[in-house]
Design goal:
This is ABC transporter permease subunit. Keywords: Membrane, Transmembrane, Transmembrane helix. This protein is mostly helical and about 300 residues long. It contains 13 helices and two strands. The longest helix is centred in the middle third of the chain and has 35 residues. The chain is globular, with a radius of gyration of 21 Å.
Length: about 300
């Protein structure tokens, strides 16, 4: 099938799948004749609904994981010269986890929970989902059926991107409230303002990884393969950024999104790097444009 056939979708014999974004409430929607924004929102709604349950599970899991740090963290570090242990670690390892003030609950959360849970874990999940949705949709002809509506190709990519707001918003809304509640229960209240500031600042970071995942999903064949590559890119950039920090090659780390989200700076020092937000948003827009252009040229 040629690209022009995919875009036009005029063949009446073409099979239509009932489980595609153009079908809402059992009735076929004329997304091809509607405005592009209508098709985009239909796709975003369809894909977003599929992410509600996984997002809720992720929110609960991360809340429990973070609450564990808040609950037993001070007991683990009590009586231990944490600062001396931190200084004894290699610089690359300290940079990797942002180790600073491990003797406090905010420092412990920033250096371990948010590093593993957000900078690596949640970012990897968002990138994996984005890459898998595109590459998997192409491999299984699901996107082929969507384009037969007809639907503008840019609407598909933008709709998939908007659907990623479901896990990003759900997790970032639930976890800070859970951590704050547990901190009140143990009598060592965290700063609610700093918690919400960190989660708000993480939204552009996660959206950038979603856009990167879309680019990888368009470029790589196979949903699982694209997803695995996305996971690898998240881990690789995180490690590279930590290794080059403080070295002669520190400028190389500027391409790593992890450089622009500093949980320790927010929770420990109360510093909000708004310039980093601008960089992340600009990079997200660039990757989204690349994904849209590449998908327009992709034979689906």
């Amino acid at each position: 099938m040629s690209e022009s056939d995919a875009d036009a979708g005029t063949d009446p014999r073409r099979p239509r799948r009932s489980a595609d974004p153009a079908t809402v409430g059992g009735e076929r929607q004329s997304v091809g004749a509607a405005r592009p924004s209508t098709a985009t929102l239909a796709i975003a709604r369809y894909e977003g609904e599929r992410l509600v349950v996984p997002s809720a599970v992720a929110a609960v899991a991360l809340s429990l994981f973070g609450s564990l740090y808040v609950w037993i963290g001070p007991q683990v570090t009590a009586g231990v010269d944490v600062e001396a242990l931190t200084e004894a670690l290699p610089p690359a390892l300290r940079a990797l986890f942002g180790l600073e003030s491990l003797g406090s609950v905010p420092g412990l959360l920033a250096s371990e929970f948010y590093t593993l849970g957000w900078i690596v874990g949640l970012a990897a999940y968002v990138a994996y989902v984005a890459a898998g949705r595109v590459a998997g949709g192409i491999a299984t002809d699901r996107l082929d059926a969507t384009l037969a509506a007809p639907t503008a190709r840019r609407s598909v990519i933008v709709g998939l991107f908007l659907a990623l707001l479901v896990p990003v918003v759900v997790v970032n809304a639930v976890v800070p409230l859970a951590l704050y509640g547990v901190s009140l229960a143990v009598g060592d209240a965290l700063s609610l303002a700093d918690l919400f500031a960190l989660h708000a600042l993480s939204v552009p970071y996660l959206l950038l990884w979603g856009a990167v995942g879309l680019v990888l999903g368009v470029a790589i064949d196979g949903g699982r393969t694209a997803g695995r590559v996305a996971l690898g890119v998240v881990f690789a950039t995180w490690i590279v950024e930590a290794v080059v920090t403080g070295s002669d090659y520190e400028r190389v780390g500027a391409v790593a999104p992890a450089r622009y989200l500093d949980p320790t700076g927010v929770l420990v020092r109360g510093e909000y790097a708004l310039d980093s937000v601008a960089v992340l948003l600009a990079a997200t827009a660039l990757c989204l444009v690349v994904a849209v252009v590449a998908f327009a040229r992709r034979d689906v």
